[in-house]
Amino acid sequence: MFHLATILLCLSATFIKIDALSEEFKRINVLFTADLYKELLKTNPENFVVCPLSIETVLAMLHAGAGGRTAKELADGSKVPDNSIKVQNLFKELKLQEEQLYTLRSVNKLYLANRFSINGNYREIVRNVFKAEIENVNFSNNENAARTINYWVENQTRNKIKDLIKAEYLGPYTVSVLVNAIYFNADWLDPFDSLLTKQSRFHLNRAQQVDVEMMRTVLDTPIYVNDQLGATFLELPYKSEDVSMTFVLPQDIDGMPRLEANMQEVLKRQPFDDVRQVTIAIPKFKMETSISLEPILKNLGIRDAFTGSANFSAMTINDHNVFLTRVEQKAFIEVTEKGTTAGAATFAISEDRSFGATFIANRPFIYILRHNTNGILFVGKFSNPVGTKVSE
């Protein structure tokens, strides 16, 4: 795989209304994306694609069901306020459904174990704020449960994201799986001419080069040179003014480390005041990345949610010991002469180790006090708490 020397800034789109909530969400989105990108660099030194918004959505749904230290860590790690109402207001205003000049769809779903009940308030938040469907499944039949979830994800991403969840991830202790799926497809406002696409040299570094299919065109388009970052920003619009793709090219062949050390500045929208005729050559590419998010989230400070002390009391009804066991994302992108297709799906699996062998003594029962060597010492029946006598 060649090292992509341009940073693909995930589809910058006017997803939410231009107001205080919109500006706050975009600020949070940049901060989280910068942290996420830096963490991904540790294990993905070459090509990768990730959808921060999909991860943020799943974390926000988890935050709505969390309390105490668990909620605070989820908020701090994802850069949102540690206030459930404020977080819900931010996500409630997201506009992620478009089927006209381009296709954009973000959908959520909550899969629950058949015998697992959730808090009524949390159910309403999931449905009304995050517009999520809720479906009961039998996780003990893990093959069928994984097939059910994967089929839904494939449909929502138009078969771009397949086999998201492995059956081995699920079992009798699984109580819930939160899933977000995002699909995007748009044509360039000015498509590239495929007849001009030719093999060209791509610099991996100063010493190494490889051949790549390079798309070519000449356009009047926004361009900005940021001398402080040592990079040129090129914005290519799609047919709708809502969405565009920004390419960030370091001025020096070995200039990526300088950019990646300043990701917050790179991710901010640049002052594209200058529209000039630009001769453009960009690689035609397709890639898919699978990311285990648990180590990344822990490095961002989200640790309590993965332990037995996790507090998801706002999600559950009874005294369940629910905690996260796995959070992953699979993302896909393809950039061609015609336009861009991208998809992503993120899931979070929760377990309750007491759930697989529930024992709630809320009805008459027999009790036996046994000496492991000498046999039964006491036996009794408990059928009515009112009839018990307590000696002082």
TrEMBL record:
Q: Which GO terms describe its molecular function?
A: serine-type endopeptidase inhibitor activity
Task: Provide this UniProt record's keywords sorted from A to Z.
Answer: Protease inhibitor, Serine protease inhibitor, Signal
Output the Gene3D superfamilies linked to this UniProt entry: Alpha-1-antitrypsin, domain 1 (2.30.39.10), Antithrombin, subunit I, domain 2 (3.30.497.10)
Is Manganese among this UniProt entry's keywords? no
Signal peptide as annotated in the record:
1-20
Q: Name one GO cellular component term.
A: extracellular space
SMART domains in the record = SERPIN
Q: Where is the Serpin domain?
A: 34-385
The cross-references to PANTHER family, in alphabetical order and at most eight, read: GH10112P-RELATED, SERINE PROTEASE INHIBITOR, SERPIN
Q: Which family does it belong to?
A: Belongs to the serpin family.
Q: What protein name is recorded for this chain? A: Serpin domain-containing protein
Recorded source organism is: Photinus pyralis
